[in-house]
Amino acid sequence: MKKNKILKVIFGVALVSLPLAAATAIKTGQIDRSNDASIAKDQTELNRIVDVINIVEKRFVGKEATPSKKDLYEGAVAGIIGKLNDPYSEYLSSDDLKDFSEDMDGEYVGVGMTISKKKGEALEVLDPFIGSPAEKVGIKPKDKITKVDGKDILPLTANETVKLLKGKENSKVEVEVTRAGKKEPFKVTMTRSKIKLEMVESKMLENKIGYVSLIRFGNNVGHEVEKAIKNLQSQGMKGLIFDLRSNPGGSLTEAQDISSLFVKENLIVYLKDKNGSQKNYNRTLNYLGDFPLIVLTNKNSASASEIVTGALKDYKRATIIGDKTFGKGIVQQVIPLPATNDAIKLTIAQYFTPKGNYIHEKGIEPDIKIEMEELLTLKGYTNESDQAKKNREKEIEEIIKKDKGDAEAKKIISAGDVQLKRAIEEMNKKIKK
């Protein structure tokens, strides 16, 4: 059965957004004008677009003011990309480009939550960040948002919804929420604030087992992960657990950098474009050593997460524990349109693991499969107070009870993070060898 494609965004809401959400993105590309002759042949069609926009501007009568000519042209470009029926390709206005850059840096103005949104469905809240505007007004995991400032968002894409939720610092946004256990939807108003996402977390576990968690593949995370591992090594780290669970992806370059830290082999991943041409992406950063390595994954580990996981599995460098990954084996490139300061984000290639595996809509199977309630992963809170973490744990317990019933919930909660526990168990075996 074909997997439903879900765009996941870390908000500001979002990508953080952009997919922000689950995109493996090449940061920029250029327009190839080597075939300008074909543009001349298309002049009749281009004139048709101009004619329609001029007619609309002069004659359209509606409930609202006619959009500006600039907005109409942007709509035409967006319509071309929309015709591709590809959830990962999109038109980016100049404002969108700015948001994209902010999201990749992990800093933006929004409401602070990760979400899942498919066109035609409500927005599902995956996780409101502790201390964020969303968390402060009581937004909970698994809440469904159906309206933003009174506008029905069911027909919208993830990024269109994100645009409604983001805005100026200290501005307000109202959302309509449906929640399991409540008969009627309710409204809450959030005050947007600046969100700073810490993408890399690290700590030393028992028996000198290092733990590094990566929230997403934003700008410069390769060097941040490198720094975190070196710090753990300076403390006597014997082995490393690298947590990529619920990591939706991000920059291909960062996936390349991070893979380089773990493998000696040169090839990390290769791409094939529309014409079948192959481009190899090789090692970049320095290899950090032969320490035992375990990678944690789940069904929301996507895109760049799968590039890293695929390379480590192909080269038998790490043991993969958890659940099968999402299955996104295609790459997008941001292609600027210099004359108008906007861009398109376009799917331009398929990617393959070093051994030639194409994982799109298939995912990567773990070496040791351990299923788990994903809410118990609790990633992203190392910088929060112990009380904040306890409050979130209690909140998650209540959600699981409503979903599973008291008896089943008690078993799940008492078991805890069984994937991490199994990783620690397996790492201790490796260390003793």
Any overview of this molecule?
With 433 residues, the chain is an alpha/beta fold. Among the domains are: 7-33 and 66-195, Pdz3 Domain (Roll); 374-416, no CATH class. 33% of the residues lie in helices and 25% in strands. The chain contains twelve helices and 22 strands. The strands form four sheets. Strands 1, 5, 6, 7, 8, 9 and 10 form a seven-stranded antiparallel sheet that branches. Strands 2, 3, 15, 16, 17, 20 and 21 form a seven-stranded mixed sheet that branches. The chain has a six-stranded mixed sheet with strand order 12-13-14-18-19-22, with helices on both faces. A hairpin with a 2-residue loop joins strand 7 and strand 8 (151-152). The protein is globular. InterPro entries: ClpP/crotonase-like_dom_sf, CtpA/B_N, PDZ, PDZ_6, PDZ_sf, Peptidase_S41A, Tail-specific_protease. It comes from Leptotrichia rugosa. Pfam families: CtpB_N-like, PDZ_6, Peptidase_S41.
Report on the biggest sheet: 7 strands, antiparallel
What is the CATH architecture assignment of one domain?
Answer: Roll
- The fourth-level CATH homologous superfamily of one domain is PDZ domain
The CATH topology assignment of one domain is Pdz3 Domain
Structural class category: alpha/beta
Radius of gyration of CA atoms, rounded to a whole number:
23 Å
- Measured distance between first and last alpha carbons: 42 Å
CATH class call of one domain:
Mainly Beta
The chain-level mean pLDDT equals 87
Q: What gross morphology would you assign?
A: globular
**Unreliable sequence segments:** 1-22
Q: How many distinct beta strands?
A: 22
What proportion of the residues is helical, as a percent range?
A: 25-40%
Count the DSSP helices.
12
> Strand percentage, roughly?
25-35%
InterPro entries: ClpP/crotonase-like_dom_sf, CtpA/B_N, PDZ, PDZ_6, PDZ_sf, Peptidase_S41A, Tail-specific_protease
Organism: Leptotrichia rugosa
GO molecular function: endopeptidase activity; serine-type peptidase activity
Pfam families: CtpB_N-like (PF22694), PDZ_6 (PF17820), Peptidase_S41 (PF03572)
